[in-house]
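Re: your question about Indoleacetamide hydrolase

S., sorry for the slow reply, the queue was backed up all week. Below is exactly what I fed in.
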Amino acid sequence: MTQLWALGAWDLAGMIRGGEVSCREVVEAHLRRIDEVNSRVNAVTVTLREGSLAAADAADRARARGETAGPLHGVPMTVKENIDVAGSATTMGIVPLREATAAADAPFVAELRAAGAIPIGRTNMPEFGMRWHTDNALYGATVNPWSAGHTPGASSGGEAAAVATGMSPLGIGNDGAGSLRWPAQCCGVSALKTSLGRVAQAGERSGPLPFAFQLLAVHGPIARHVRDLRLAFEHMCGRSGGDPWHAPAPLRGPSVPAPVRVRVVTGAGGTGTAPEVADALRRAAAILADAGYLVEEGEAPALTRSSEVYTQIMSNYSRAHRDRLPVEAVASPGFVRFWQLYEPVWARAAGEEAFDPMMERASIARLWSTWMSHAPLVLAPIRTRPAFPVGSDLDPGWLDDWPDTMRMVVAVNLLGLPAVAVPVGLSDALPQVVQVIGPRFREDLCLDAAEVLEAAAGTLTPIDPR
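Result:
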């Protein structure tokens, strides 16, 4: 019999509804899995053992009384440390916030709880979410379960590693510059970067947010199966929490005439695409073509300028306070070194200063809208390079081309578009993952295509740490 920790959220929810297993058994199985493997990957920072078992017992009693079960009834989930979970600290990966306990859930966490999900732990992230490798002075580094010598990605690296190793069937993170999709690429799991306005940003401890994060960052799920992404997504969008960007758009849009067109963007300009990443794109394109999608190659409009405008907005409008403590006072030596080395690279990546970056963003959005009106889906790399060896992002020479390799990622953030990261295979024992991008509020189209890819390519996880 398959171990409970190896099953996805959809399967677990079905087994609980059918009386095959209790909520407590499911939660206990995942807590045991954390006990067994977390010491090897350091993905889960805090285990919510007492509260999750109490919630599981309450869920079992409710089911015994014949009360209607929610679609996620009894399903465990883990939550990144920059998202509010009542009774747990929202640390953002920094030591001064280790006691910053939230009194209430973030709106979408509350919504997932209302659907029956049970938080069982918090997951690791780099300080402030501002590095592409998961490490901090509070909890230390997370290890990629595929290869301890390679990064698990960031900033939702703890979530990706936890889901990949079966410690959680469902993880909740966020994406301001690929922070869901990049760790999904490194750890071989699926992730949904939602549209701007889909999921409320507000939270007691984590908000209000600076303008750049309001505009560029969104919350979304990580899972091993695309259908689990869809299940979680459908129960994250209903509460505004006072977020002025929140838009209660329909979860499924109008049908698109068949065959659905897909543009394949093989590169992100500048540095080109690594052979293994290009191979993954070709494999994914062939799968979609065999399934009846009309696949054609193309180049994304204004890609370099999108990256530059993104960088300008993030640089100029990402501070919560006029004054700030020296980074040395709150961050690890590794983060301090990373930021010292990356600041000049980041400054160059901003390009020519925009007279009005929001006006230029609107112009780029119109170009993309016209481009996607012909082919509503885009198949593209996440980062144009695979997971990097640990320590590479502390090498000034290596850092130079990072912005070029992430152009497709940050263009999606700039324009508020949805994207699904989905694995399509392995190369040199590391996962290969692509992203499917769609028009704003068309997560349904992205998820549909990602399910086709998953059905043909299979899933890569859960795995034992290697």
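The CA atoms of residues 255 and 445 lie 9 Å apart. The chain has a mean pLDDT of 95.

Happy to talk it through on Thursday.
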